[in-house]
Amino acid sequence: METIIIATNNKGKVKDFESLFHPMGFQIKSLQDFPEIEEIEETGTTFEENAILKAEYLAKVLQTPVIADDSGLIVDALEGRPGVYSARYAGLHKSDEDNLQKVLSELHDVFPGKRTARFYCALALAAPGKKTITVNGTVEGYISSEKRGTNGFGYDPIFFLPELDKTMAELTADEKSGLSHRANAIKSLMNVIEKEGKEFF
Fold first, then answer.
1. Residue 174: active-site member
2. CATH at 178
């Protein structure tokens, strides 16, 4: 089984990647498997910039192919926030719960039909001596007025999918892996690898 290194310490993201890559015959390793490597500061102004920064740095340090993900929630009524600050929206040392409660608070007076949002995922695949590949994926939805569901992580409990009448946190792992922003980005990445990036591995 081939190994892919994912540039994250986020257990929820690792679980997402495992559910998507295991059926393809890949074993996943993350930054949790490399405790000697310090957290990489995300200084980019876009999801793509942050993903490239993380992937290229780790590929150089580990001398192996690395996939980095930078993803987050974009809320139209909040002018695109929390965006690249999704993981630290309520402050550097705050939790997923603090972040989603801040979003709910800021949308308190916004009508349901105006609470449109999307999850956005940028992926970068970097390897020593190779040109970095970037792709992205999205999923459209609305921000609910309250939390629903216990699956997933981050903003999943308040991200409502009207066509399913469920929040992302009410989906099974199989359902989520079929339609999430990360799943869509990974599908795009696998298509690119099939066409021009097989030599990465």
1. no
2. 3.90.950.10
